[in-house]
Automatic annotation (TrEMBL):
Keyword ATP-binding annotated: yes
Name recorded for this polypeptide: UvrD-like helicase ATP-binding domain-containing protein
Coiled-coil blocks: none
Start and end residues of each UvrD-like helicase ATP-binding domain: 154-540
Keywords, alphabetical: ATP-binding, Helicase, Hydrolase, Nucleotide-binding
PROSITE patterns registered for this protein in UniProt: UVRD_HELICASE_ATP_BIND
Species classification: Bacteria, Bacillati, Actinomycetota, Actinomycetes, Pseudonocardiales
Organism: Amycolatopsis magusensis
Residues reported to bind ATP: 175-182
Length: 666
């Protein structure tokens, strides 16, 4: 590339930066509202890589592509990468050039242009399915930092199709390890925020498996100028969730738990077999089972949550009691003959108990009446109802028949033990919904990452927060570790969205070198004959290896290997049973700090993450740890971008026998 070309692009870039500076000054001069603060953050986040591409079109025009749009007199100086006209930057090929003659990649450091990389899209250069291969491979082989970065400059065509998919319902992105599912889901979110601005007010949510994972991906959206996205783990969706974390227990995660929770809540309502006596101001009122049943039915007919329906029930019962009481009083004073009837005094007046009841209801009775007339008007009857409702004795009876409930009580009663783990949270959430205990915050779009791990009950919890059912769901069925997790997308989604979901696939593995993917071949083929593993985009020429040791020596061997490691970040992935022993000999923290040079993780914790090198300690123990141990081992093996080694105490698991054996370090 000539220095003249670089100088040309430098001048253009400098002009763009000056324009952004002017916008920043204007934003800073405005009132410090949320909008302007957001605008300032957005303008600050485009500082690096403001402009990263140029398209020279066959009609002689050219467009620049970058992280935001800049215009002069309606003429685009810079196109936001999400604008339709920027799309050929990601999709144009020599075979199908989309009107593009040349694609130029502009690499900058700070505000300086450091390299230009041109692709001429003509038939002679055809046949390559990677867009901007040089820049892509540079990104893929760079040292991992413990933080994921945006990939907006090297997004590939199959990824771009998913990012810009206009489907409004649930879009499932299925793909093997390293195919960019997480990256694509986050870029899609940025795209949707650009094309559907109403989502900014409705809110968007990214759900991930752990805080460590959410921190790992936490820079991607801000790097794309999007600062308003909420991130959460499933447990964080429940206020004040219990600390102890467990994998979603299989039984608690099954869909039929929803019915069991609802049934357990509704079973709290009791219709008595015999009349119940209700004391009120020295009166004894009778509540017949029939009246009770009618009140229960009428409350349930409204379709309200349990605790709201209780209010209807209470009101109906009190209406009944008040009306019985009032009618009885009326019947006393209305007796023309002057005879007392049941409950009244001999002179045809109200009894002392009646008068107390009326006084409690704030009713003043005028006894200077002449002839029969109605004593209690509507206001008096309403007063009587209010007095009954406020009476502690009456309340006790009402609460005995239709007890008020909290979600915690309901689930503790159902399980027979106190709520204590994350697997109980979807049950609590379910109970809260049945009870109407608290409103949940909802979002206009939800991204669910590592979605294969969610149980049927987890899905109910997620869907409750996304009334529009607009979601991007990314996962890999070959990586499911939770016994309550997904074995098929249709079965988890159909109960919530019917057929209103679409499947998109990613097929290229950008992370794991071909040699390592080949080493997972036997394991994968044995357990997922119906799935295709992704195709690695690169190879390193370095095969993964295995090393035999003893149980007694395992920790020492791992520590020695870690101590001699000098090629980028290293993760030691070991089953939970070895965690303490390894943590004692490794310079690694628990919980893990992904930005540290050495990280100790369980296979479950390693999901979604990546490192330059990975050592797996005791693969046989990972395999036998649960019914889906083979998936956990597959996850662990597919984390490295460069090197993989397995240390097995005792014989090698047969699925790994083909790996190159290595002698113990001396
Ligand atoms: N087009 C691309 N350009 C540059 N890097 C990419 C591209 N696509 C993916 N990557 C990189 O490949 C790695 C894997 O991406 P990501 O973690 O999103 O994959 P995944 O499918 O979610 O993986 P897994 O299922 O194993 O968790 C990341 O480092 C990501 O930045």
């Amino acid at each position: 590339m000539t220095s003249g070309e670089i100088a040309f692009e430098q001048a253009y870039l400098t002009d763009l930066h000056e324009r952004v500076d002017a916008l920043r000054e204007q934003a800073a001069a405005r009132e410090a509202t949320d909008f302007w603060r957001g605008e300032l953050a957005r303008l600050a986040s485009v500082e690096d890589g403001l402009c990263f591409g140029r398209l020279d079109l066959r009609d002689g025009s050219r467009v620049y592509i970058g992280r935001l749009g800049l215009f002069e007199d309606d003429e685009p100086l810079l196109l936001d990468w999400r604008a339709p006209a920027a799309r050929p930057f990601y999709t144009a090929t020599a075979v199908d050039p989309h009107g593009v003659r040349r694609r130029r990649r502009i690499t900058t450091r700070g505000r300086t242009v450091v390299a230009l990389d041109d692709e001429l899209l003509d038939a002679e250069t055809g046949g390559d399915d990677l867009v901007g291969e040089g820049a892509l491979l540079a990104a893929l082989t760079a040292d991992r930092t413990g933080r994921m970065h945006e990939i907006v400059t090297t997004l590939q065509a199959e990824q771009d199709r998913i990012v810009r998919d206009e489907h409004h319902g649930v879009l499932v992105v299925q793909g093997g390890p390293g195919t960019g599912k997480t990256a694509v889901a986050l870029h899609r979110l940025a795209y949707l925020l650009y094309t559907r601005p109403q989502l900014r007010t409705r809110g968007v949510l990214v759900l991930g498996p752990s805080r460590v994972f959410l921190d790992y991906i936490g820079q991607v959206l801000p790097g794309l100028g999007e600062h308003t996205v909420v991130t959460a783990t499933l447990s964080e969706l429940w206020p004040g969730s219990p600390a102890e974390w467990v994998e979603s227990a299989e039984v608690k995660g099954r869909a039929d738990m929803a019915d069991r929770v609802a049934a357990a809540v509704h079973a709290k309502v009791r219709v008595p077999d015999e009349a119940v006596e209700v004391g009120f101001e020295q009166q004894v009122l009778r509540l017949e089972p029939r009246a009770c049943r009618r009140a229960v039915e009428s409350a349930r007919e409204r379709g309200l949550p349990y605790n709201q329906a209780k209010l209807v029930f209470d009101q109906e019962i009190v209406d009944r009691l008040a009306s019985d009481l009032a009618d009885r009083m009326e019947s006393v004073v209305l007796t023309e003959s002057g005879e007392a009837i049941d409950g009244g005094s001999a002179d045809g007046r109200l009894s002392a108990a009646d008068l107390r009841a009326l006084a409690a209801a704030g009713v003043v009775v005028d006894f200077d009446f002449e002839g029969p007339r109605q004593v209690l008007d509507d206001t008096d009857r309403a007063g009587l109802r209010a007095a009954l409702l406020a009476d502690t004795g009456v309340r006790r009876v009402l609460d005995g028949l239709w007890p008020p409930l909290t979600a915690e009580q309901a689930i503790t009663d159902l399980l027979g033990t106190p709520v204590r783990s994350t697997a109980d949270l979807p049950l609590l959430d379910e109970a809260a919904a049945v009870l109407g205990e608290h409103g949940v915050t909802t979002f206009g779009h939800v991204v669910v990452d590592e979605a294969q791990e969610l149980s049927a009950m987890d899905w109910r919890m997620v869907v409750r927060r996304c009334p529009t059912r607009s979601m991007t769901v990314v996962g890999d069925l070959a990586q499911t570790g939770s016994a309550a997790g997904a074995t098929g997308w249709a079965e988890v989604l159909r109960p919530h969205v019917g057929e209103c979901w679409r499947l998109a696939q990613l097929t290229v593995n950008y992370r794991t070198p071909a040699e390592i993917m080949a080493a997972t071949g036997d394991l994968f083929a044995a357990h997922h004959p119906d799935l295709r593993p992704p195709r690695s985009v690169r190879s390193t020429g370095e095969p993964p290896w295995r090393m035999r040791t003893t149980h007694a020596e395992l920790a020492r061997v791992v520590a020695d290997l870690a101590a001699s490691h000098d090629d980028g970040s290293l993760a030691i992935i070991a089953p939970p049973e070895h965690r303490d022993r390894l943590a004692a000999v490794l310079p690694a923290t628990v919980p893990p700090d992904l930005t540290a040079p050495i990280v100790l993780l369980t296979p479950g914790e390693a999901k979604g993450l990546e490192f330059d090198s990975v050592l797996i300690a005791d693969p046989a123990a990972i395999l036998r740890a649960g019914p889906l141990g083979h998936n956990d081992l597959y996850v662990a093996m597919t984390r490295p971008t460069r090197h993989l080694g397995l240390i097995h105490p005792g014989p090698c698991p047969p699925a790994l026998a083909a790996l190159t054996p290595q002698p113990l370090p001396t």
